[in-house]
Design brief:
The chain is an alpha+beta fold. It has helices at 2-30, 32-39, 52-57, 59-69, 130-145, 150-177, 191-243, 254-264, 324-333, 338-363, 370-373, 387-429; strands spanning 73-81, 86-93, 101-102, 105-106, 108-113, 118-121, 269-274, 282-288, 301-306, 313-315. The chain has an eight-stranded antiparallel sheet, sandwiched between helices. The chain has a two-stranded antiparallel sheet with strand order 3-4. 30% of the residues are buried.
Length: 431
Amino acid sequence: MRRIYVVHQWVSLICALFLLLLTLTGLPLLFRGEINAWNTVNMPQSGEPMPMAELWQALPEGEAAVRAAYPTKDILAVTPDDTDGTLYFRVVERGGAAGRSHMRMGGEQIMYDVRTHTAFDRKERIYRSEGVQTFMHTMHILHVRMGLEEGGRDFLALMCALSVVSIVTGIYLYLPMMKSMAFGTHRRRTSRVFWSDWHKITSIFAGTWATVMCVSGIVIVLYSVGMRDYHRTAHIAAMEHFAAQEQQAETLRPADALALAEESSPARDVISMQLPTASYPFYVFQTADPPVRATDFVLGEQTYLPAGGGTPLTVPVPAWMKAAPFFLNIHIHNHELFAVKIFWGLLILMTAAMIVTGIVLWLTRWQRCIAAAAEIAVEKRSNASWEEPARIALVSLVIFIAPIYGGWAGEGLALVLSAYLIVYFVRAVCR
């Protein structure tokens, strides 16, 4: 027990500030969609969801509209957004260099509304407050990579791993400490005892969420590394496959190339297409299994097609990466309802409280008052010390997972159980 305590104490010290950074930067990012919608005054109004096939049917019209409205720009890629019926055209000034981007993220993106037949360049967005936009961008880069490049990202993944060790060892220490005291007990005999009791209860309520976020964050980093390697090896495989084949001189139209890709994978959605260039004479499509919800993350496989046509080649992703969508969705895409986001915000604040109370305990570790205060008359426990942590962990997991597989019914279940945990917490601390 003593060794576990030392491990918990020092591992927590190492990772506490970095976990607090991830927690506090995650709070505004949780409401990024709402904040960006409020802060952007000229953003086109979002439409209703649209089937992916219907979206792609508008590709020729969208391409023509973008080329007519922005004649000095070359189209590099097209990505549909079936949540609101928009085609995103990633473009670059003719003769210019393309910046780092992925699907709808990064680069210069022109939105084409399939219903209204209008094009809008996202570079032309006007903000109510540039300070808010700068703040949100800063929160994002701090949360993802600590304001650094890949080194910062990998370091934060290491801190997440240490945080999981801290939480697991903390639960191990909690169970014997609470054998006799009722759940939610908070004593006031000394300040250290006060902070210790609050550290216990915040850890029980926030521990499952913090563990899930840390584990899924680690998987996201591994996915990022694995996807970059997959793109590199898939490109090499495609070059070797088509090297011996005679290529047509005339380039297929994007709509015709898309039709070939759809025919080669009829049960899958095309979630993005990259157009050929003078230096890269291939169409590159990403195809994926249809999601449960339009907002879910899906894992795309690369499909290559020579610019002049032929038989598409799909390069499968490594088997281990097929688990990535679950973790990305549980980290980012399982809280669409605003009320569920409120609950997530409370969990973020609870996690921050867990960290702060832990730091206070570490700073006052030279005080030895807990043993003396343990004799205070408190409500005695009538059940096993593992029952409340297990119940809270189980309910929390249902809240996190149900929206991924249950659609809007899952969102509703998550909302009901979130309200249950809030009531459970209030009753625990008010006893």
